[in-house]
Amino acid sequence: MPELTVEEARSAAAEGWIWGYALLQNYRTMCPQAVDQDDPRYVGGFGHFRHYSEPFTPANTDVVTPNNDTPYSWAWLDLRAEPYVVSVPAVDRYYVLPLHDLDTSYVGYIGARTTGSEAGDYLVAGPGWDGVVPEGIAGVLRAETFLVGILGRTYLAGPDDVPALREIQEQYRLRPLSEFTGTTAPPPAEEPVWPVWREEDLDTVEFFTLLDFLLQFFPVLGTERELRGRLAALGVRGSGEFEPAALKPEIRAAIQQGIEDARARLEEAKTDAADSTHWFGTRAEHGTDYLTRAVGVDKGLYGLPAAEAWYAGWARDDQGNRPPNASTHDHVIRFAPGALPPARYFWSATMYRLPERLLVANEIDRFSIGDRTPGLVYDDDGGLALYVGKGRPADPKQAANWLPAPDGPFTIAIRVYGPDASVLDGSWTLPALSVET
Q: Which of 229, 225, 76 is nearest to 146 (CA)?
């Protein structure tokens, strides 16, 4: 293979960084959860669920932009030796178990919207598996990487609903195919030497050392053959042997410049990215738009596709303050009559402090507000005004509709579960986040 020029190396590094950003951010979560047994976030290794049944509070800091609508069920699968079977009970509420590849592209979904409320067993197979699907399998999900993640969500009606939620979660099961069929298990896959996650590697040439390791679990796809070829020309072949120190100084410098180019492109792309319509989805839905995928990963890793749940918020208020800041202004969100978020299931608005994107402690322990919030006071015409501020409003109506904010910058995430077509096509839009005068 001809040696790359400095400009070719810079271009390949920029493209490879944007494409590989999702893989590294995914590993950033997978490593403590599935690999590092000493980490408090450890779920038990591959092939185990860890459920969160209690509502999140500001004390929970291991997940950014958490929600209390649908507590999480985490799991990771290693499909190198054999497929897994995911089993679910009959579920009387909204739930979804989305399975994602190593690059966060969704493999498929098990849940209320896609497979219904009935109990079922679903086979998850890795690349190249051509075995016999056993009888009784309700569906087959075919992954394109050997490592697959699950971030399940199950609806929680409130604190009193926790026991019922936990009963459902405990019936989600993961079994290797051999255990499901009662046959002899194949030999286990070789245990790799998992790299230690280092935050600083995202913005240095070491990014490609970790990417090179991860690519051994990611066979080359036809649609990405050219891109993977350019990475291979840099020495990133999936061998786990990429060594930045062995590069010529001018090539190493070009790769670093390419990373900086890519980071600038990502920062620019996410500046005014206001909603999640195209951020999350299957590989077919993403196509080759890796930049938009990277925006979604940066804004909300493992967000659901828009058909399942639509996310939006406000980068600035109606006076141009960016980000909005509750230390200087109170705000109001006014939904016109008939213009509340149109949802098949439910909607919510959750407050987060910036820059941490964590829940905000407040005197009434209200971290979100939405169509299930008791005691909301609607306008006489059927509209709804939500009051956003650091202090409880004196007016009783405003206090009933108060979403507490931090004493400083904040962001609000609107989540619409089962969004109407009008949300997806843009004919329904969010109202302004208005400065209260």
A: 76
Determine contact, residues 351/405, Cβ cutoff 8 Å. yes
Q: Which residue(s) pair with 97 in the sheet? A: 110
In this structure, are residues 326 and 405 in contact, taking their beta carbons and an 8 Å threshold? yes
Determine the residue type at 20. Answer: G
Do the beta carbons of residue 208 and residue 237 sit within 8 Å?
A: no
Output the pLDDT for position 274: 67
Distance CA 22, CA 295 (A): 9
Q: What is each CA distance from 379 to 37, 229, 338, 359, 401, in whole angstroms?
A: 53, 60, 12, 28, 11
CB 313 within 8 A of CB 290: no
CATH number of 313-435: 2.60.120.1600
Backbone dihedral angles phi then psi of residue 229, each to the nearest 5 degrees:
-65, -40
What are the phi and psi torsion angles at 275 (to 5°)?
Answer: -140, 170
Cα→Cα distances 395→33, 197, 372, 391, 398, Å: 46, 50, 22, 12, 5
**H or E stretch at 27:** helix 6-30
* Residue 59 banded pLDDT, cuts 50, 70, 90: confident
Which CATH number, 2.60.40.1610, 2.30.30.140, 3.90.650.10, 3.90.600.10, labels domain 1-300?
Answer: 2.60.40.1610
pLDDT of 299 over the 70 cut: yes
Tokens of 391: 């202090």
Q: Give tens-digit pLDDT for 94-136.
A: 999 999 999 999 999 999 999 999 999 999 999 999 999 999 9
Residue pair 97/110 in contact by the 8 Å Cβ criterion: yes
Domain ranges of the chain: 1-300, 313-435
CA 276 to chain centroid, in Å, comes to: 11
Q: Which residues pair with 388 in a beta bridge?
A: 331, 403
